[in-house]
Specification:
alpha/beta, Alpha/beta knot, 2 domains, 6 helices, about 20% helix, about 15% strand, protein-arginine omega-N monomethyltransferase activity
């Protein structure tokens, strides 16, 4: 019998007042929809710490789906925080992995229990890394440039952590990378040592790609992306949410709020 797939949790970090009205920026909605496609059918993406107003608007945005879209993950929206949700559902905090750029250990294919753990040497502290995990946790709207340590409030709660390398990612990329590693057996790459190795090979990256729009218009994205394996043409392309390029082109004259 196949083991249950891990679930993914986006703790919405923008809500200082849980009762405050909120309108999600378009780029955030594009990312959140993309998360459901990246995870795919058979698992759930949870959005936590939402105000009532933002919960309703997000439900409407995520429920609108074209029949041509690939199968998507289910989603659940919560006004409760991840700690409250975990307590209600009986999920120990030790089973929830916080994706944290300051974590000691790199995410590995073994971290959801589907693949073997890296070999442990006498000098290694691998045995103290914790895991496997049933849930993977992210601070919502993370894509700041330069990065702000939005994850600090979650880190302070004592979740075990994993990092995804030193280069900043958008939240949907971080979630997609996690899925590809813990469910598909990919690795971060040689720069992460033994934990960067994946039984199914390493992920392919594009760092700070330049998006070209013609007529001399272009913009450099300050993030690391996975390479889009479905892109046509000879040049590699970053894996981005559908509609994101068009959104960026419209906002070329505005500073990025990622």
């Amino acid at each position: 019998m196949a083991s249950k797939r891990p679930e993914y949790v986006i703790e919405h970090m923008e809500e200082d007042d849980p009762d405050a009205p909120s309108v999600f920026p378009e780029w955030a909605l594009l990312e959140y929809r993309h998360m459901l496609s990246l995870v795919g059918a058979g698992s759930t993406v949870h959005f936590t710490s939402l105000s009532s107003a933002s919960l309703d608007s997000l439900r409407e945005a995520l429920s609108s789906s074209s029949s041509t879209n690939p199968p998507r993950a289910a989603f659940e929206l919560h006004t409760a925080s991840i700690t409250t949700l975990a307590e209600k559902q009986g999920i120990p905090l030790s089973s929830i992995c916080l994706l944290d750029p300051r974590a000691q250990y790199c995410l590995h294919a073994s971290d959801a229990g589907k693949y073997p753990a890296p070999s442990v040497s006498e000098e290694s502290q691998e045995g103290q890394a914790g895991g496997p995990f049933t849930h993977f946790l992210y601070g919502g709207i993370l894509g700041d440039d330069p990065p702000r340590d939005r994850t600090s409030s979650l880190r302070a709660l004592g979740f075990p952590g994993r990092h995804l390398g030193k280069v900043q990612m958008t939240t949907d990329t971080a979630l997609g990378v996690t899925k590809r590693i813990v469910e598909d057996g990919k690795g971060m790459g040689d720069q992460e040592g033994v934990r960067g190795e994946g039984p199914e090979g390493a992920l392919q990256w594009m760092e700070f790609p330049e998006l070209k729009f013609g007529k001399g218009e272009s913009v450099s994205m300050p993030f690391r992306y996975m390479t889009d394996e479905t892109a046509k043409g000879s040049e590699p392309q970053p894996l981005m949410p559908p509609g994101m390029r068009e959104h960026i082109r419209k906002d070329l004259d505005r500073s990025f709020e990622f």
